[in-house]
Amino acid sequence: MGIGPTPEQVESWSAIFTVPDVWSPLVAEVMRREGLGSLESMEAGLPGSNAVFIVNSDLVVKLFWPRFEDDQGREVEAHRLLRARPEIPAPLVLAAGLIEDDLPWRYVVFERLPGLSLGEVRGQVPRADMRRIADEFGDIVRAIHTIAVPEPPSPLARDHQQWRNWVEEAIRAAPERHAADLARVPRMRDELPGFLASAELTPPGDALRVLHCDLTADHLLVEDRDGRWRVSGLIDFGDAEVGHVDYEWVALHPHCFAYDHELTSGFLRAYGYPFDRESARRATACCFLHRFATIAPVLAAVGMAGPDVGFDDLVERLWGGVCV
What we know:
About 40% of the residues lie in helices and about 15% in strands. The chain is an alpha+beta fold. The protein has a five-stranded antiparallel β-sheet, with helices on both faces. A three-stranded antiparallel β-sheet has the order 6-8-9. It has a two-stranded antiparallel sheet with strand order 7-10.
């Protein structure tokens, strides 16, 4: 058919995935198939893993990089679960499907929520409003985590054994995966397998939750309402998983609250989560196990370098001001 990017173009994904001219024929076909009218305007959303465009000012069309084709199923399923929870300000899914082109292009069409991403406006938001946003966000994420874990064949279904298997495999892969980033902290490199194994990431009982897994400032929408900034939406559930709740804070603390211990503490208090020393160890371990974990920026952000730096130091730098 040849209306979307070619396989050769997709090899240079970062050069094309925010360029409307490359995608407009494919987006126009999505609109036609779904009966959503003609394509009148189109602008790129914030850069992420997939191609996202604001269309006709009131729609969002997300086209999934074939490398991440499974994200569509997770995203659609997460929104199905969210429909029963109106207190969670997630966008409505208007359509989802597949266009077989030179490559298979999976897509989801959303309503556009009001507001801008916190990452775009953080510098304009007064401190008191940031505290309020943290509190509101804690309430929202708690609501997500109270959703019942779905059963098979849901793409989000995962039981305790499956989670345990995933953790064990991620621990086995971690030393090689992070070898380059830990080269300047040899003690931490040597301690990594033991630290991860001791972090108690395979809890008994009902401790597994439906997780967003990418709680960043880009995905938290806020708006100025009568002179006060408030939360207006939470987007991008394409990384949703079922897992231990402490896996969630890997994105939240650095990428939403920029390592601000006061804001993360306010969020966790509003959530009602007793974040203690063991939680801090689990969350630190998850930094090395997360799907998109890159450790060098974390170490740089909290000033960790040198031959004698170990995991106790990292836990304290990351979470010492957050622990109850």
